[in-house]
Amino acid sequence: MPIFLHIVHSLSPFLRGFAALIVALWIAFLVRMIWQAMKVHKANRAILAVLDSVPAASSEERIDGLPLDRINLLRSAFQSSNEHAKDWWNSIEGSLLPLNSPLSEDRWFVSDAARDLFSSEELFEDYADVSHQAVPGILTALGLLGTFSALLLGLADLRYTDKAVLGLSDLINALSGKFFTSVLALGSSLIFVLAERFLFATRFERLYSKVCGRFDRVFPRLTQERVLIDIRKEALSQSVSLSNISSDLVGQLTGAFQQTILPSLSFDLAEQLTKQLLPAIQKMEGALERLESQKQDSVVGEFRSLVTTLETSITNALSDMGSRFHEQLTGSAHSEFAAVQETLSGTSQMLLQMNAQFELTRSALSNLVDAANTSSDHQAKASQDQAEALRQLMHGLIEEMGKNASSNLQNIAGALTNVIADLSRKVEDVSETMIRTVSNAAQGSQSSADALIAKSGAWTEATSQQLTTLLESIEARSGEFKAAGQSLLEAKSLLADVLDRNATALKSMESAARQVEGYTTALTVVARNSDDTQRRQAEVVALSRQIVEELKQTSAGNQGILDQYNRSLNEAKTVFGTLDTQIETLLTKINTGMREYVQTVESNFSVIVKHSNDYLPEISRVLQSQIQELERQLEELTSVFSKALQAGAE
Predict the structure, then answer these.
(1) At what angle do helices 201-218 and 13-53 cross, to 10 degrees?
(2) CA 376 to mean position of chain CA atoms
(3) Segment-wise mean pLDDT, segments of 10 residues, the chain, 650 residues
(4) Residue 222 DSSP class
(5) Last residue of some domain: 518, 533, 567?
(6) How far is CA 155 from CA 106, 159, 170, 173, 545, in A?
(7) Do 565 and 373 meet the contact criterion of CB atoms below 8 Å apart?
């Protein structure tokens, strides 16, 4: 701790303020992340609490589905919860599927599992995961900014003199500040990443797993296998219902025969016998009264006529009764059979319609599969064509870029060649000019030196002569000195001319150097532009390759999805095709059985009618024998009456 305080105190005020800024930003980002995490965790804990308050689905409910009161209980619980739970329930409620049941109320299922219905990103959308992941980069960037700022401040005060280097202490303090800001930024970034990844992200993942697990335990899922099993059960129940038609029809026909035909037959028979026999008996009573009153001898003839009339009446009555019985029996049978036939025809039409509907469904599924295959083929071809076109475009672009690069390189090489040739030509001109100038200057210097040497020799000789004759003449010495001064002035002018020529040559060389520098700068710019162009072309090529790879991956993914879709459609087609064949076979068997049953019932009723027709003549014969017996008894009675009348007459 004292070392840390010593380091902090040794920093410059700017670096201390910058470090305080990094710490303040780290605390602000950390507090913001903790607040968002607690808020989102609390909102999603409310969803888990509502799901925990409802009992899990039992084994029967997983087969039959949830009742409506359970759904209403969940709906009311979520509506009374927070806004996040309400929105989540509104998004989930659309996935609830009702299953109709003829024996009870509707049952409810969910279409998919919890991880397929809602993802963790949707559940924790209020938690800004992307912005939190950018915080370590921001802190690290600030640390690097502080590092380079410290280096800049340390190097700004550094001064180099002949005696010492000034500002080394500030540079050392700046270096310590550099490491301090870097360590501070890296440490805060590390702590933030550990808190975000291993604390909050782990808690969110555990909460998401709990919510998904509880959701799957509360809500049963409706699968395709369950739907197919329900369809099979419904088909079996319909076949059982159709098989029970025969027993119900026999029971109805037996009940109708016992309750309707037999009572009406007995009542009509008694009524017809009463209607036919009552007039005959009344006539017999009248005849007896007339016999007793008139005592005529034609009693036997009267009785015979009465018996004949009675026989005729009874025979007609029985024949009428037999025909009416036959008609009623045949009409009832025909009406029952007509109703049965209409029912069977309606059933056959319904089965034909079901078969047609299944055929339409199968054809629609076949068309859908064909359309999906066609669309998949078209999409695959289009993707391949697009990939091929893009590949050709990239290939052409790369070739064009290569050509352009080669042409640019050729142009640059030509320009460089021209520039170098021009530069060499100008350098040669400058060199020749310098050589000529130097040669001229050397020649002038040589001539001046020769003249000076000659004059110096003459002056030396004159001086020696004058020294020898010094005492002779002062005026001759002064004249010689004057001549020597003039010679020196001439030499000075010659040297000034040489220096001027050298300055001109140096200026020419300086301008040539500036031109060379300009050409060098231009060449550097051209080289940089060429490097930038090549780098951009390389980036474009890399990006194009990446795009082509992504297109290939996307095409492969689409092809996989289409293959999976084709497999699902083929499986559905196989299932429905087999189901259609089974239903068609079952309905064909039912139709054949019903036809056989109708034929059997018709043959049985034909046998019944035949037996009735066979028994009616026998009944008529029995009645006729009884009538003959009655006639005989009447004849005996007539004879007794005749004898009694004769005895009374005597």
Answers:
(1) 10
(2) 16
(3) 59 75 89 89 89 86 82 87 87 81 70 83 77 84 78 67 62 63 84 87 89 89 74 71 57 60 59 63 64 54 60 64 59 54 59 60 60 61 60 58 51 51 54 56 52 51 56 58 62 64 65 61 62 69 70 71 68 63 70 72 68 67 74 75 70
(4) -
(5) 567
(6) 82, 9, 8, 11, 45
(7) no
Between the two ends of the chain, the Cα-to-Cα distance in Å is 175
Residues near 471 by Cβ (< 8 Å), separated by ≥ 6?
none
State whether 151 and 68 are in the same domain. yes
What lies within 8 Å, CB to CB, of 171 at 6+ separation is 154, 155, 157, 158
Could you give the CA distance from residue 54 to residue 47 in angstroms, rounded to a whole number? 11
Contacts of 527 (CB under 8 A, 6+ apart): 412
The answer to whether residues 44 and 84 touch, using CB atoms and an 8 Å cutoff, is: yes
Count of domains observed in the chain: 3
Domain co-membership, 29 together with 91 = yes
Q: Which domain holds residue 610?
A: 230-387+577-649
Q: 515 and 436 share a domain?
A: yes
The continuous run of DSSP H or E covering 25 comes out as: helix 13-53
Query: Do residue 285 and residue 202 come from a single domain?
Result: no
The DSSP code sequence of 590-615 is HHHHHHHHHHHHHHHHHHHHHHHHHH
Q: Tell me, yes or no, whether 205 and 236 share the same domain.
A: no
Amino acid identity at 226: R
Contact partners, residue 570, CB within 8 Å, separation at least 6: 369
DSSP output for 61-114: HHHH-B-HHHHHHHHHHHHTS-HHHHHHHHHHHTTEEEE--SSS--EEEESS-H
For residue 572, being part of any structural domain is answered with no
> What 3 state SS string does 116-132 have?
HHCCHHHHCCCCCHHHH
Report pLDDT for 80. Answer: 87
In a domain, 104, yes or no: yes
For residue 274, is it within any domain?
Answer: yes
Q: How far apart are CA 233 and CA 237, in angstroms?
A: 6
Residues 468, 425 share a domain: yes
Q: Which of 567, 593, 611 is the last residue of a domain?
A: 567
What integer pLDDT is reported at residue 35 of this predicted model?
Answer: 92
